[in-house]
Write a structure and sequence with these properties.
By secondary structure, this protein is of the alpha/beta class. The chain has one domain (about 5-280): Rossmann fold (3-Layer(aba) Sandwich), CATH 3.40.50. Helices cover about 35% and strands about 25% of the residues. It is built from ten helices and seven strands. The protein has helices at about 25-30, 40-50, 70, 85-95, 130-140, 160-175, 200-205, 230-240, 240-245, 250-265; strands at about 55-60, 75-80, 100-105, 115-125, 140-155, 215-230, 270-280. Helix 6 (about 160-175) packs antiparallel against helix 10 and helix 8 packs antiparallel against helix 10.
C-alpha cells in the first residue's frame, strides 16, 4: 500500500512551471509529436478570409509542428517560444523564410505591438498560458476583425488487453505519485459530441470561453485521425507529456519499461485515435 506522504496530493504534472520540460528533448519532440490535419489549416485560412496583410503570432511554437503551413500561405510569423533550445531549433528550421522571427519569452511577457496582427494562433500550447492575461493580450494585439485560432489534440487507445496492461502500469507507477482523484479523463469513453461541450474548452484550453473575453463569431470544429507507433516510438511520445516527465525518475523508468514490454507482447504497435479540436473567434 502506498503511503500518503509519497503522493502529490495537489499536483497533476501540468502545472505552469512545467512548460519548460520540453526544452531538453527538442530533437525527440520534433520527431515524435503528431502532425496536424491539413483541414485545420484550410479551415483557419477560410475563416480568416482574404487579406492583403498577413501578420501572425504563434504562441508556444515549440519545434514548429504547426508553423510551416502559415509560412507557406504567405504569413509573416512571429513565433513566441519560452525555451531557449526550442527557439534556436525554430530559427534554424525555418531560416529560409524571410518573414519568420522568434521571440524567446513567455507569451505573457513578450513585447509585441497592439492592433498589429491579422492572426494569432496556438497549437497544443495555450493551456500553458495564464488565460486571464493571455486572452486580453491577444485581443489587444489583434486588428479589428482579425482572428484568434486555438487547436489541440486528444489521443485515446482502443480498449483491449494491451489497454488493460498499460493501465496496470499506470496504477503502479503513475498513481503512486499522483492522487487517483486526479486521474485524467478517459478519452476512449468520450463521444465526438462530448468534445463540443463547454467543459472541453476549460479542460483543453484552461478558460471558459472565447466569448467571455469579447471574441465573436466563435466556432469549434473537430477532426479525426489515427496513428500507429512502435513500442520505442510510443515511449518517446509518452516522454513528451508533461505529467510523465514530472514523475520521479524511478517511477517514470518503471512505467515506460512496463508499457514498452506490454506493447511488444501484443504485437509491437500501439494505435492511437486522435480527435483534434479547432476553436476560433474574431475580434
Amino acid at each position: 500500500m502506498v503511503k500518503i506522504e509519497n503522493i502529490s496530493t495537489n499536483k497533476t504534472g501540468w502545472e505552469r512551471k512545467n512548460r519548460v520540460h520540453f526544452d531538453s528533448i527538442v530533437a525527440t519532440y520534433d520527431k515524435i509529436r503528431w502532425d496536424y490535419p491539413d483541414e485545420i489549416f484550410s479551415d483557419i485560412f477560410e475563416y480568416c478570409g482574404s487579406n492583403a496583410s498577413k501578420r501572425a503570432i504563434e504562441i508556444g511554437a515549440g519545434t514548429g509542428k504547426a508553423t510551416e503551413p502559415f509560412l507557406d500561405a504567405g504569413y509573416d510569423v512571429t513565433a513566441v517560444e519560452l525555451g531557449a533550445n526550442m527557439s534556436a531549433f525554430l530559427k534554424d528550421k525555418y531560416k529560409k523564410y524571410k518573414g519568420f522571427s522568434v521571440i524567446t519569452s513567455s507569451f505573457e511577457d513578450a513585447s509585441l505591438e497592439d492592433d498589429s496582427y491579422d492572426l494569432i494562433y496556438s497549437a497544443s500550447a495555450f493551456h500553458w498560458v495564464d488565460a486571464s492575461v493571455g486572452c486580453p493580450k491577444v485581443m489587444n494585439l489583434l486588428k479589428d476583425n482579425s482572428v484568434f485560432a486555438l487547436f489541440r489534440n486528444n489521443a485515446s487507445q482502443q480498449k483491449d488487453e494491451l489497454y488493460d496492461e498499460v493501465q496496470l502500469a499506470y496504477n503502479k507507477h503513475y498513481y503512486s505519485h499522483y492522487m487517483n482523484s486526479k486521474r485524467p479523463i478517459d478519452l476512449s469513453e468520450m463521444t465526438v459530441d462530448d468534445f463540443l461541450q463547454p467543459l472541453e474548452v476549460q479542460r483543453g484550453f484552461r478558460f471558459d470561453s472565447l466569448e467571455q473575453y469579447g471574441f465573436r463569431d466563435v466556432v469549434m470544429k473537430l477532426y479525426k485521425a489515427s496513428c500507429s507507433y512502435t513500442a520505442e516510438d510510443y515511449i518517446q511520445l509518452l516522454d513528451t507529456y508533461s505529467d510523465n516527465r514530472a514523475l520521479p525518475d524511478d517511477s517514470r523508468e518503471k512505467l515506460y519499461h512496463e508499457i514498452k514490454n506490454a506493447i511488444i507482447k501484443h504485437g509491437g504497435h500501439q494505435k492511437l485515435n486522435f480527435i483534434f479540436q479547432l476553436y476560433m473567434g474574431r475580434k
